[in-house]
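pasting for the record
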Amino acid sequence: MYAVIKTGGKQHRVSLGETLKIETVAGDVGAAIVLDKVLLVADGDKLSMGKPLVAGATVQATIVSHGRHDKVRIFKMRRRKHYQKRQGHRQNYTEIRIDGISA
């Protein structure tokens, strides 16, 4: 059984027991959260697809940790113009574990 959820402007395919990193979600470590933007639920050969969301479908998850991704380095340069710009960025994330999928 798996589901496709939408969180943080991205879509993720999740299944039971899986851990994944999503955009930051408010909550303490160990807290249970409910993700209700479910786009698709598949159970064996039975498929439920929403338009755009599946009515009544939820995904239960537990917050495992909060953190920051690796640094992404941005370097801009214009040749012959004496222009160079260096910049870095680290995106925050929340790591969650999928505990249940209900349709």
